[in-house]
Specification:
With 114 residues, the chain is an all-alpha fold. Helices cover 70% and strands 0% of the residues. The protein has one domain.
């Protein structure tokens, strides 16, 4: 069920863990970490839009990258693995944000504060 846009992807990943599914017995702790990570992804994604200043976009991209990595680490701890598209979408979000961080790092350092 991969989405065509990054906002849709973030929403679908969050929905998968937070709404549509429940953890298997014994997976509650890892599942909770994943739920919080997907909330951070969903909350930070709108700030990647080009209308925001480069420093805001880099900060949000780092937050999404870190949350994606944390979710992927915790998925390895689950006794029941989520659907493949979820793992692929998290990996894609991580890759996209790494590229965005690299592309915007210099611009984010040169933000003028009034």
């Amino acid at each position: 069920m991969p989405r065509t846009t990054r906002p849709d992807s973030a929403l679908e990943i969050w929905d998968y863990f937070y709404i549509r599914n429940v953890p298997a017995p014994g997976d509650e702790k890892a599942w909770g970490v994943i739920e919080r990570a997907t909330c951070r992804i969903r909350e930070s994604e709108p700030y990647l839009h080009p209308s925001f200043a480069p420093d805001v976009r880099v900060r949000s991209a780092r937050r999404i990258r870190d949350a994606s990595r944390r979710a992927l680490q915790q998925i390895e701890q689950l006794s029941v693995v989520p659907e493949r598209w979820v793992i692929d979408e998290l990996a894609e979000l991580e890759a996209v944000t790494i590229g965005l961080i690299e592309a915007l790092s210099n611009a984010a350092r040169n933000v003028v504060v009034h």
